[in-house]
Write a structure and sequence with these properties.
- The protein is flat, with a radius of gyration of 18 Å.
- The protein is built from five helices and no strands.
- It is an all-alpha fold and 158 residues long.
- It has helices at 2-27, 31-34, 47-81, 89-120, 124-147.
């Protein structure tokens, strides 16, 4: 059970870090070009829509920048705490506990930005296409989750 919790914690941390990087890319106006908001490339955005997205992301930047800085500082602390094979459960747990609310805030900010883009920028046709892309993502993730072993004692078939 403890192993599963650690794997979940590490996965959430990785998702949060990736989300933060993606959000940072989106905030500099280049996220949809550099992979942070890759799905928007598939929607054939106009130059005006791209500018609207850039403006929305920049408006959110003041809120997310301190969070991204905290994430980076905590990541540095984690690297330093585990350097050269060192490991203190209490110290690593403390750093991980500091990360959790930051990850949550960044996830909310990312989804808030995505909702603003969806409702304020995309045309009804683009919204329909976005919905289909999202449905495909949900289906792929669902299939992946169903393919995972149900307990830590099971091993995947080769």
């Amino acid at each position: 059970m403890k192993r599963g919790i650690w794997i979940l914690a590490i996965a959430l941390l990785a998702v949060g870090l990736c989300g933060g990087v993606c959000l940072a890319n989106a905030q500099d106006g280049g996220g949809y070009r550099h992979g942070g908001m890759r799905l928007y490339r598939q929607l054939n955005l106009t130059a005006a829509q791209k500018q609207q997205i850039k403006s929305l992301a920049q408006a959110q930047h003041a809120t997310t920048r301190p969070l991204l800085q905290q994430m980076a500082a905590n990541r540095l602390a984690m690297l330093q705490a585990t350097a050269n094979g060192a490991f203190s459960l209490a110290q690593v747990q403390s750093i991980a506990n500091q990360q959790a609310p930051i990850i949550a805030q960044l996830a909310v900010a990312r989804e808030s930005l995505q909702n603003q883009i969806y409702t304020q920028v995309l045309t009804p046709q683009q919204q329909a296409q976005f919905n289909q892309i999202r449905t495909n993502q949900i289906n792929r993730i669902t299939q992946h989750l169903q393919a995972l072993p149900q307990s830590s004692t099971e091993t995947p078939a080769p």
